[in-house]
Structure formats: structure tokens, C-alpha cells
Amino acid sequence: MQYYFKSKLLISITFFLIGFCKAGLPESSHNSFHANPLPHRPLGESGRGQRDSSRNQFSTKILDAAQMRQELDFLEKKLKDVHPEPFHFLTEVEFNNRLSGLRNNLPQSMTREKWYLELARLIASLHDGHSAVFYADEFRKEYFQQGGTIMPFRIFLQDDFSVQIQDNFSADSLLDSARLLEINGKPVDELIGEMRKLTFGESDVFRNAQVSWYFGRMYWFLYGHTDSLRVRLLLNNGSLAERKLPMLSDKEYEEVIRKKYPQVQATAKWRNMVYTPMQGRSVGRLSLMDFNLYKGFKDSVRAVFKTIAENKTDTLLLDLRGNGGGEFNITEEINHYLLDTPWVLVSKAKVKMSDEFYAAFPKALKILKFLPKKLIIRLASALMTRNTRIRKTELSRDAYTRIPTYQIYTKPRKHFSRDYFFRGKVFLFTDRHSYSMSGMFAAIMKDYGRAVLVGEETGGLANPHGATTRLKLPVSGFSFSVSTARAYRPSGVFDDSGVKPDVPVAYEKLSKARTTEQMLELIRGK
Fold first, then answer.
1. Which of 106, 319, 381, 401 would staple 287 via disulfide (CB 3.0–4.6 Å)?
2. Which residue(s) pair with 454 in the sheet?
3. What pTM was computed for the model?
4. In terms of DSSP H, where are the helices of 52-173?
């Protein structure tokens, strides 16, 4: 309880942001059906006439117009109550026009899946990488239990918006690395255009990554169930080909993955950090998989830097590629072994103290809502963080809700580990999948000149929104994640971009650098 108390209080009150979208569109299965059963009917339409009367009668929830209006009212209120600056990228007038257009053109009824599309597009238009509507995995599992299918391949959306087959699960080897041109008669650029409307975030590359990860699921949302796909391809030899591919059941898909990636199946436990020394050289690579909080993380960080010291490492490659973020505690702990000058996690934070913000607190801490806020902020900072002190706080209230929003200005403090402190060279590798807290970590390393950044601009902003709270929509059961705060990088430089590398590397080369030697070659510009 004490561990949870300290973690939650620190996260919630000091407002140093938590990353949430490691996995993009899917949501954990904590969402469930609404307590009151809704009428059911067959789900959706399949893509271009690919209906199979024997397998395409899928049961799903139906929402009527009154229920959809109820959820729109809920979304609008919670967004404006909770988010400190919801209209940073999209103006309030533009958002209200989109909302009114949706509200005024509701049909008499809609399936849960089609309703998800409407809400996902609406919230995605805000371009906030931490605010989104999620469709629960539980609902997707119900589809599979009724005979639902999965695509027999995975794709990668290139920066030029061409689509390459990345993982081929079919028996047809011609699909390997082929370029996808059409599915069921629909040009792929048309498909991508519709799918990108469902993605959230500030950067194009991060939104493209969501399409790559969830292409099959998005296709199902948009075009419904199908038992097969007619695909048109540009093969590696430059010729065109057409294929009809059977879809996979979930069990078939799991069996294909088990056989194709046995090493993944054999992995017993996820490791947040992996240190790999380079044989015969004083170079080591520290792969930071995520910044998710776990009990004993301080001991883990200490053990890693002890190993680095014992190996007499003088050049450290920090690998943040694919790190979707997490909590600031681990970032702060790692920095204690890298920064021996005064530093801060963020120069400023903006947080909105709505009822939903306090609802995330443990029950025993609800009383904090009624205590002086500035005192709580300063006390939490003094007790919980070693490198941040509060310089001043400013209170404002937005015209719409009058809910208090605090801007918290920090001042740096010197604090570092006397044992196993690393004074060698640091190279930090980032890519489009370095998001949320990993982007903030990159900003710290760059702003204090501690590391040379190699790779791509981070997918997440250097000044991100975050510290999300999760709300459940009243009828559909969808989850609505909404930011409660914004952080500003230590330098105070404010823009709407990610952290830019010192040594830019194209994603195609960056993603293929698997070994420490290959990463060193990227540093040397090879």
C-alpha cells in the first residue's frame, strides 16, 4: 500500500507525465458490456461483397440515437472538464462543428463497431497522442468466438504511404515483401486515408505506425467480416499479381505465430532493461524496453550500472527505439547515474484539477481535494522527487468550466549517485516509436548535452500532453483516455515537434541495426 501510495501521489500531484499508448489502438480487456443488455443484430458489411451467409451473422450491440447523443454529451463534457488545453491543435470552433455535424446526423441506430468509428475519428481530430477512444479487446474476442477472422499478413506503411507486406502468414511466398496495391477492389491509398482518420497523435510517423500495427483490425472496423481477401500486388521482380487469400481464425493465427516466432514464445519474462557488453571493447548497449514502473526498479537500475562499471565501459549506447514510455520514476533513477549537474525532468507542468483528476487517487487520499493545492504540490515535490523543486505556481480558470488549472514552474537540483556513476560517452538511439516518457527522457539528455542523439525524431512531442485518466463511456463500454496535464522540456523551448536527432538516420537503416556493431556503424555514418 505504501508503494502504491507513493507512486500514485507522485504521478498525480507532481504531474510529470505518464506514457500510455505503448500499444496504440488496442485496449486492455477491463472494459465490459454495459450492465443493461442492448438489442443485437448482424454485424457490419463485409468488404466488396465478401459475405458468407454461413459464417457472417455476428451478434453485436446496437445503440439508438438517444444513447449516442448521451455518449456525445459525455465526451464533450469530460473533454472540456479534464483536459488542460484540448484545443491546442484543433480550434474549439472546428471541434464543435465536427461534434454538431455528428450529433445532427445520427441515424436511428448504429452497431457498436460503426459507432466506435465515429467517436474515434472525432477524438483523433484533436491530434493529442494521449487522448483517444478505445475499443475493448473483450469485444474483439467475442467476434472471434463467433468465427471471426484475421488477415493472413501484416503490413508496414512506408513514409511515402506505400504499403509493404512485412509478415506473410500464408503459404504463398510471392507475398513476401510485396507491395500491396488493392484489397477487395479498393485501392490501398483509399484504405490508408480512412484508417489514418482513426489514429491519434501529433506526428505523421507515429500515426502511420498505428496503421501498420492495426491494419487488420481497422479493416474489420471499416468494412466488416470477410472469409477471404482479393489482393493486387506489385512483386519484388516488378510484375503485377492477383491472389485470393483465405483469412485465418484466431487459433490458426496463434499457431502460425507460434511456429514462425518460436524464440518469442520461449521468452519467459519481459525485461525492462537489458545490458549487452561488446566483446573485446569498452562499449556496451543498454536497451530500455519501456519505463513502466515495477517494484524493485531502483535495485535493477543500480545493478545495471554496477555491471557497466565492472565491464569498464566508456561508451554507452542507450537504445530507446520502440520504447512507448511509462512513468518518470525510472527515468529519474537512470539520470542519477548519468547527470551530476543540477537538472529537472520538466521546466514547467500544466495540470487541470478536475473531479476526474482526483478520482484517480486511492480512496484514502480523496481528502487531498479539499486541502490547499499549492501546499500539496510543494509537499509532494519535496517528499517524492530528488531533483525537482517548485519555483512558483500560477492558478488560472478556463472560461468554460472554471475548473482550476495550475502552471507549476520548477527549479533544478543537483543529486546523483556516488556509486557506479557513468562519466563516459553516451549515444541515445530514438525512432518514431519512442513516445511519451521516452521522448521526455531524450529531451533531458539533449537539453543538458549529456548524449548524442542518433536515429529519428521521436514519435512523441518534446512537450507532451499526458498524465491520462481513463473514463468508461456510459452505454457502449468504450474507454476514453484523456490528458490531464502537459509537460515542458527542461530547456523551456516550446514547439509542437518531437526531439530531433543530432545524427539523423533513415528508419529503414535504423530498424535493421540489431547488433551493437551495427549501431556503431550508424554513429559513424555508414
1. 319
2. 429, 503
3. 0.81
4. 65-82, 92-104, 112-124, 137-145
